[in-house]
Specification:
Elements (H helix, E strand, L loop, with lengths): L2 E8 L14 E4 L4 E8 L2 H14 L3 E6 L11
Antiparallel strand pairs: 1-3, 1-4, 2-3
């Protein structure tokens, strides 16, 4: 079962950087942060994404698991 995560990073990364990640939603916040939402199949995939972001040198603001509602809308 997949869990959904929201990962917030400082700055705006170009969309082409995220092509390798299927079903990743990228939102550019007006505060200058990038909000990533992704259905992550397991912990190793989460660690892979976090390590990839670390290798890019981005600043991680937050990581949180999202709760799924009845309508599959996620609380933010």
């Amino acid at each position: 079962m997949k869990s959904f995560y929201e990962i917030v990073i400082q700055g705006h990364l170009a969309l082409h950087r995220f092509r390798q990640f299927e079903n990743l939603t990228v939102i550019y916040d007006t505060s200058g942060e990038t909000v990533l939402t992704w259905p992550i199949p397991d912990q190793s995939a989460l660690l892979g994404l976090l390590n990839w972001l670390h290798d890019l040198g981005v600043v991680l603001v937050s990581v949180r698991q999202l709760e799924e509602t009845r309508d599959r809308v996620f609380d933010r």
